[in-house]
């Protein structure tokens, strides 16, 4: 397994050359004072050192050790506490946080690069800062001034960590049927009772307090999703002076044994009349939780991307070193017993597919992050509304497409290693196992696809889709005279037209048939993702073309050749996906239960 190195050159390319992030930051008053190109670069550099030097070396052994449960306490694998402390000392937990409460106020475009490094280096560990950041977003957006004052500074500093408690044994996707109860108390607090399962980092020994955001129902709550409220429930109650008080009435009943991310604690949490405080309004908890979920969803997409990057780094190195058989065109290294496997077209197929998804995926996550920045920091109402629409549309694509392609990529990386890919010490099988959960949690990828197709595309009668289509069309029109880009733009325009046609068809079918959306959704999200990555690759060709002539490093010429591979070998998948969608729901709904 290659030692993970943060892909700083790649990240700088995407940030500075493809998206001109410094110009974006300078145009957003809310962020302009917090970051400039030198600061951003120093953050990337330092993040690279910490993730490669501190987190990555723990990853393999921590997977073997896992977390240990003992009478409600959870002990993390060796080195995790110290690594967590390194993050606390560097203020990394508050990188994107609100400066009013001690956060650093960095733009998401930059924070996303740090997140990728952390998830690539050590996904189990990376979940802890990720959940804390998500909890902070929800609290900052919906908490009362008192709650924010009391909790946000310690969460941003990392002294305390965050967890989110939605899932119950009988309620995962359908949170409307949760049973956890919240009873109002005379002092304005609530007594929380119930059981939550699968709570990531719900208990551990890295931070001195753990702040849970718990979904529960008030006694008179309406049935279903409209009767859910969100509560802040700390492990230790916090005194008025900010010091820690008594232990709250809840604890970790056990840890799950699982397929991957074994070094993270997945906890059963039992609430036994615990004291909590309402966050946001009564019965509006699901909407409040969605603020956190949307943030997390891009973060989970980035987890898929990170695993894919780590897999690519190792597979690329291995393919250059491992020698087997001769190249089909004759020996390339006659002095050796065989040629490196990189000479074989099928190994090239795997590596180029991996590189296409990883670099296209990084551009896409940065693109989505740039809309998040505009939505959060722009002072222009119209621009903000436009960005909100893009974020709503693109978030499910980022979550599901990046994790689906993330798993594809890690499996390809494992395949490049042959039998060694199946053996633990090489690390590729861990990446496959770790990446698998990203397709399931934070709303399964099937549910993301329903969200995209049902709520976003059909729900807006195609208006949100038009925002994206317009963005791509503008790019095509603005660059129509660019000779280097022309061959890509024709295929991109055709892919967009294909996607637009299918969008129109499903919107029409949805009005006539309630099963149409569910039947089309996953293939539609895939088509959307492949088209979006084609757009990203066209943007990367534009940024690379001018510099490719003098490029002896292979960086820019490599970008253009990878774009060609993507357009020739991967984008055509949208043709087959469109065919499948057009066939409708008949074939999947026809069988009786006994026929499946
Ligand atoms: C390791 C791990 C960590 C986790 N961390 C957390 C955490 O920190 N906090 C937390 O609250 N939860 C957490 N979860 C829970 C996770 O978010 C849920 O498992 C996930 O949302 C799916 O819910 P479920 O398991 O109940 O599956 P179900 O909801 O039972 O779904 C089963 C299948 O049916 C499909 N399905 C369900 N409803 C529909 C529908 N309406 N239309 C189409 N298909 C449908 C699903 O897509 C899925 O394929 C974690 C889970 C794991 C395994």
From TrEMBL:
EC number assigned by the record: 1.3.99.41
Gene Ontology MF term list: flavin adenine dinucleotide binding; oxidoreductase activity, acting on the CH-CH group of donors
Cofactor requirements of the protein: FAD
Start and end residues of each Acetyl-CoA dehydrogenase-like C-terminal domain: 468-590
Residue ranges of domain Acyl-CoA oxidase/dehydrogenase middle in the record: 163-272
Domain Acyl-CoA dehydrogenase/oxidase C-terminal: 283-452
Alphabetized Gene3D superfamilies for the sequence: Acyl-CoA dehydrogenase/oxidase, N-terminal domain, Butyryl-CoA Dehydrogenase, subunit A, domain 2, Butyryl-CoA Dehydrogenase, subunit A, domain 3
Keywords noted in UniProt: FAD, Flavoprotein, Oxidoreductase
Reaction(s) catalysed (UniProt annotation): 3-(methylsulfanyl)propanoyl-CoA + oxidized [electron-transfer flavoprotein] + H(+) = 3-(methylsulfanyl)acryloyl-CoA + reduced [electron-transfer flavoprotein]
Entry keyword S-adenosyl-L-methionine: no
Name of the top EC class for this enzyme: oxidoreductase
Methyltransferase keyword on record: no
Acyl-CoA dehydrogenase/oxidase N-terminal domain ranges (all copies): 39-159
Record InterPro entries: Acyl-CoA_dh-like_C_dom, Acyl-CoA_Oxase/DH_mid-dom, Acyl-CoA_Oxase/DH_mid-dom_sf, AcylCo_DH-like_C, AcylCo_DH/oxidase_C, AcylCoA_DH/ox_N, AcylCoA_DH/ox_N_sf, AcylCoA_DH/oxidase_NM_dom_sf
Function: Involved in the assimilation of dimethylsulphoniopropionate (DMSP), an important compound in the fixation of carbon in marine phytoplankton, by mediating the conversion of 3-(methylthio)propanoyl-CoA (MMPA-CoA) to 3-(methylthio)acryloyl-CoA (MTA-CoA).
Similarity field: Belongs to the acyl-CoA dehydrogenase family.
Database matches in PANTHER family: ACYL-COA DEHYDROGENASE, BROAD-SPECIFICITY LINEAR ACYL-COA DEHYDROGENASE FADE5
Protein name: 3-methylmercaptopropionyl-CoA dehydrogenase
Lineage: Bacteria, Pseudomonadati, Pseudomonadota, Gammaproteobacteria, Pseudomonadales
